[in-house]
Design brief:
This protein is an alpha+beta fold. Helices cover about 35% and strands about 25% of the residues. The chain is built from 4 helices and 6 strands, in the order H-H-E-E-E-H-E-E-E-H. Strands 3-2-1-6-5-4 form a 6-stranded antiparallel beta sheet, sandwiched between helices. Strand 1 and strand 2 form a beta hairpin. The longest helix has 17 residues. The structure holds methionine sulfoxide (SME). The site of methionine sulfoxide has 14 residues, from helix 3 and strand 6.
Length: about 160
């Protein structure tokens, strides 16, 4: 029987917990597994990746593990693009139609919608989960909830 959306999200967050708690993998291997899990299980997620605060730079993000097309945006200053704006506000940023955004960095011409969710450690912004979709208007409230939960669960890795 097909899972309801709620059941699917529940099983996703359970799997994320297991990945986070695993003993044999490094932090980056765990983040990579989480990218693969999300990209494989949610049809509209076409690019899934983590950007991390670079401790050696001044307010700059560096690309971490990801799944999807290669991107030119391997470093993003705070404030630039959707990713940089989420880094500055420390809040989830949902864009249903990227063509309507002025402050946007195109990863590929196929991308139509994007969600960026901050990862906080003791309230401080340490990284973010960035997801692109080739489908306009595809980021639901359910996606936001499950991704915010995923970002809470991965926080201890930082
Ligand atoms: N679109 C992002 C840049 C990162 S790529 O999508 C992977 C932005 O506007 O910040």
């Amino acid at each position: 029987m097909k899972q309801t959306e709620g059941q699917q999200y529940n099983s996703l967050t359970k799997t994320v917990s297991k990945i986070v708690d695993g003993e044999d993998a490094s932090r980056d291997e765990k983040l990579q597994q989480i990218c693969e899990l999300l990209a494989e299980n949610v049809e509209v997620f076409d690019w899934v990746g983590f950007y991390l605060v670079d401790p050696d730079a001044d307010r700059e993000l560096v690309l971490g593990p990801y799944v999807g097309e290669e991107t030119d945006h391997t470093r993003i200053p705070f404030g630039k693009g959707i990713c940089g704006q989420a880094a500055e506000t420390n809040e989830t940023f949902v864009v249903q139609d990227v063509s309507q955004e002025d402050n946007y960095l195109a990863c590929s011409v196929h991308v139509q919608a994007e969600i960026v969710v901050p990862i906080k450690k003791n309230g401080e912004f340490v990284a973010e989960l960035d997801i692109d979709s080739h489908t306009k208007d595809s980021m639901t409230e359910g996606h936001r909830k499950v991704l915010e939960k995923v970002c809470e669960l991965v926080s201890p890795l930082f």
